[in-house]
Amino acid sequence: MKPGTRSFYGQAVRRVLARVVDHLDAALDLESLARDACLSPFHFHRVFGGMVGETPMELVRRLRMERAAWRLAHSGAPVTDVAFGAGYDTHEAFTRAFRANYNMPPTEFRKLSQARIELAAACGVHYEPHAANAAAAAIAAFTPRHTGGLDMHVDIEDKPAMRAAGVRHIGPYIQINEAFGRLGAIAGPAGLFGHPGAVMIALYHDDPESTAADQLRSDAAIVVPEGVKIPDTLTEHRLPARRYACTVHKGPYERLGDTWARFMGEWIPANAVRIAQGESYERYLNDPTRTPKEELLTEICVPVE
Question: What distance lies between CA 209 and its chain's CA centroid?
Fold first, then answer.
């Protein structure tokens, strides 16, 4: 085991937690947070979300909401001032969000004699109004999420170089199936499915936490042997030969996000691997048109040092 690897990501996430708690009113610089964790923004999003159970933005919104609830219960500040302090532009938007979290409007919450400000959080980190050192209190309270990721079966493999032909998808990653539909309409008539090793893969390029959903870039692609002509309407992708940590998700594609979270946020931080620069990908091992959803197999591959 490489010295320090086992605790590296836990320490990195704790540093980011401390920074968020200490600068709760500051604009969230996600690229800077990723650099602090020595990760690309894409990989940082998955590691942080998997370990904490919330993205950095979700954590900030929840802590600001808990602070707003405390101010309602312990100060006479007007609701509008509390709303602005929580990052909302209007009283109405704050009231809707507050009701969604506390099941009552701010004015009713203020009347409670013993109001509970803490919202559900798997990580154990909450707004601490009386802590002399809020960052230290957050780190002490932090509990990394454990939902079975430590028991995952993961292989470290040296993968050969891969050539693929794909179509670009711009928009929410969950909608990449639209791109696979377009890919099939081109690759089928071109005969690309008939070649050995012609499996479908997905490449994801942007961090969904720092990139607007309608601007996320991904590619639906099919692996193509060397020497096979790629239609002009498809884009060629080259993945170099390198080492990957790989696990297999079994079940519907809709639950892939849960497997990613356990893999990146639980298994990787607890084992002797470091994520390397480069693209992660999903490889689809059976045909969704002929396979029951619960039997679908998807290999997740993450580049490691």
Answer: 7
Q: How is domain 151-303 classified at the CATH fold level?
A: Multidrug-efflux Transporter 1 Regulator Bmrr; Chain A (3.20.80)
What would the pLDDT profile of 198-224 be if each residue is shown by its tens digit? 899 999 988 777 788 899 999 999 999
Contact in structure between 187 and 222 (CB atoms under 8 Å): yes
As a dihedral over the C-alpha atoms of residue 241, residue 244, residue 248, residue 253, rounded to 10 degrees, the angle is: -80
The closest of 190, 185, 179 to 217, measured between CA atoms, is: 179
- % of the chain surpassing 90 pLDDT: 62
pLDDT at 37: 73
pTM confidence score: 0.82
pLDDT of residue 1: 34
- How many other CB atoms are there within 10 angstroms of residue 27's CB atom? 8
Superfamily of domain 57-120: Homeodomain-like (1.10.10.60)
- C-alpha neighbours within 13 Å on the C-beta side of residue 227: 2
Residue ranges with strand state E in 119-233: 155-159, 162-170, 200-204, 217-223
Token pair listed for 294: 């619960």
Q: What is the domain partition of the chain in residue ranges? A: 57-120, 151-303
Interval 130-159 mean pLDDT: 90
Q: How many CA atoms lie within 13 A of 184 on its CB side?
A: 11
Burial status of residue 272 (CB atoms within 10 A of its CB: 0-12, 13-18, 19 or more): middle
Sequence-distant (6+) residues with CB within 8 A of 245 are 154, 155, 156, 263, 268, 273, 301, 302, 304
Residues in the chain: 305
Spatial contact of 169 and 208, defined as CB atoms under 8 Å apart: no
Which two tokens mark 92?
Answer: 């109405």
Q: Are 12 and 36 spatial neighbours (Cβ–Cβ below 8 Å)? A: yes
